[in-house]
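quick one if you have a minute, typing this from the bus. theres a chain ive been looking at and ive put its sequence and its fold in token form underneath. please have a look and point out which stretches look like helix strand or loop to you. anything you notice is useful, everything is just below.

***
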Amino acid sequence: MSSTLFNVLFAWKCSSTHHKLALDALNQIRGDTAENWRNLCLKYVEIYLDGSKAPDNTFKDFKNHVLHVRDNYWGGAIGATEKWYATTVAALRDRNWQDAIYAAGVLSHYYTDPIQPYHTGQCEAEGIVHRAAEWSIACAYRELTDILEADLGGWPDVTVPTGPDWLAQMVRAGADLANPHYEVCIEHYDMKKGVKDPPTGLDQEMKDRIAKLIGHAVVGYARIMERAIAEANATPPAVNITLLGVMSHLTIPIFWVTKKLKDAKERAIVEATFKEFQATGKVIDTLTEDDFTIRQVHAEEVLKKPLEELDAEVPSPIGVAHGIGAPARPRPAKVAKPKPVSPSASEVPKQQAPAPKSEPTKPVEVQPKPAVVPSVKGPSATVPNDRSRFYLEREMPVEKAPSIGAKTAAILEKHGIKTVGDLLAADPEKLETLVNERHIDGLTILTWQMQADLCCTVPNLRGHDAQFLTACGISNRDELARAQPEALLKKVEAFVATSAGERILRGGERPDLKEVTDWIAWAGQTAQAKAA
């Protein structure tokens, strides 16, 4: 798949570690038909990712998510993995592609969960840090894969065993690999830091260990999928995947805002857990449903003791080894991403983009002109009335575009992007390669293009307005014209409340219903004028 398509889907659709593991595994599938299988999964990417979280969100069969190595492999992970492998193979044989992709997503969850150390054992201290540490790992996931690629030798080679119980062997091997890190991940996780800024809860020692486990989980799952494909003896349909095609079929239009709301919910859960720990030295009342269930069932079936007795236990210390072990290492300026495995897709998506990683936008001030008719080819050449003005034109210097300040403009100008028009005409993926700056990737460039396009096609719209709109799911004038004021305002309010929104606002007044209604009206007037 193209790296731009992969990055867009990763940024917009992956809100959990399971999503990220499942998507990363597509790049590790080998074989003559690997590209077609990847494209098929991307065609049904929402189904695939929904499956990868179904055991948590739908089935809630939490005993099947664990494999406690020191309790004689207690837990149901092996049986659940074998069940969903068989379901995947059967659906592939029947060429029931959507069911097969969903089952493959579910399979990824049951296989990868026991490669997470906290799912290979049980103690009272683990209940304190489990949820917070998983959140930290999810937030630091891409840093962890960068560490794997740059510092730890890259993605590992995972061998598929022989024999009828090969899959059970793979699940046990993953748990065996993860379990020695169980106490380390309790002792090295700094919950106080993680509550405030999730990635900082992980020290270098823990990052290195988790990075290796992520590599094993991703590659191991890819090998399982290769085995399922071979066993089903099914030929995948030819699927031509493009960025625009994939994005146009996604059903949730505000992925970034959805992710931010999920982050807010996750933060609230972790903060409540930390407060209970600070007050009582334990975590009981604020345990999540999965942790509560496993604690209870493990006490009954393995420890053979009542919960009251567990409640009275003093947990071992947490975070006492944070910072000990591997010294912190600065990340390289640029880490190579997986090579594209299918034709490039450079279309601008017709969905929402995340807040760009760039300099704060200053509103573009242009002196008003009577009956402005900018010399722009395209929709912005039509102006609905004499009071309209365009704050951005294609002929303007690229520094005038939203999100692009002087430093970024200087970088872009070195590669031929001197005007707003040059920016709009650029191929994001090719420009990312040319620029070779860590903070300027294809997804960020796509975002800049959508913001600039909005300012060039919607009269009276300022740069910070366009930033708010793209962060809330609006990528072009027509989408803005169709928006409902009250619904759009709610999205804008949710975004402005985030740190990214506050940086764009820079102390200014927050958009209200009148302003949002004006944005929609301006877009609608321009569209009508063009149609006429």
